[in-house]
Amino acid sequence: MAKQGVDVAVALVLVAFAAFPAVHSIGVCNGVLGNDLPAPSDVVKLYQSKGINAMRIYEPEGNVLNALSGTGIAVLMDVGKALPSLASSSSAAAAWVKANVSSFPGVSFRYIAVGNEVIDSAGQKTILPAMRNVQAALVAAGLGGSVKVSTSVRFDVVKDTSPPSNGVFADTSFMGPILEFLASTGAPLLVNVYPYFAYEKDPKNIQLNFATFVPGSTTVNDNGLTYTNLFDAMVDSIYTALAKAGRPGVKVVISESGWPSDEGFGATAQNARAYNQGLINHVGNGTPKRPGPLETYIFAMFNENKKDGEKSEKHFGLFNPDMSPAYSITF
């Protein structure tokens, strides 16, 4: 996760989580940047006890994958630090898939994220070659139909997002070939979407209620569509950009979204609860432009005391490291 340049001066409102089929689930990101976090087996039990049926992990970790085996919890797994080697060598990709995917037949892998918020130009050039190599390795392993390969991008790959109908990809030379790959394989585009950072950047023009799914927010009308929350407006700007890029059929999965509960502007337990509960309640309905379940991963399961960056980065957790709730939340 990183701060996103968001030029959205639109809205956000109340949202409620209807349980949807396993393929369209609310997931929660399981970060491990803390020195006081529970054991993977206990983490998985907590997911199960809360009815959370999808998990994002940020690199292959054998103890986590072993704990997930046989649970049916769907997994979005990042390649982590392996990105450069996966891009440079098809044999390295084959070895990576064998070690981290094929060796865990009891794990319900759904997506492999090749890169997370890669913003430097050198790193971006490695994404597509790595995606191709990992995809080929999965196909060779007989997993090409069940596991999709994508990359997780920051929201600011889209610009001119207010109103949503203006959305367009900022760099088509980067995104165009990636979208072509996704269209050819049927994989979704993974996008990290944070109304929190939009609100933090521009609280004069973005009302807190808009950004935290609180009823009674200002309504925004755009080409016949009505927006009552900022999350929908941000996501629909992505759909607009996909259509303008000639790839309207590429699906979107929200690979991160959340709100901190401490040590940041607007970062309170009350606001975090309002946003995350609203997100849970809302995404089963989709957006004005694209109704229907929107697969979304909340960031994050736990507060992580070793996270870098702003102090608020340590406080995105739904739960404390002792597995007590950071605030009341219902799945």
Automatic annotation (TrEMBL):
A Gene Ontology biological process term: carbohydrate metabolic process
Gene Ontology molecular function: glucan endo-1,3-beta-D-glucosidase activity
InterPro entries from the UniProt entry: GH (IPR017853), Glyco_hydro_17 (IPR000490), Glyco_hydro_17_plant (IPR044965)
Pfam families recorded: Glyco_hydro_17
Keywords: Glycosidase, Hydrolase, Signal
Position of the signal peptide: 1-25
SUPFAM superfamilies given in the database record: (Trans)glycosidases
UniProt family annotation: Belongs to the glycosyl hydrolase 17 family.
Name of the featured protein: Uncharacterized protein
Organism this protein belongs to: Triticum aestivum (Wheat)
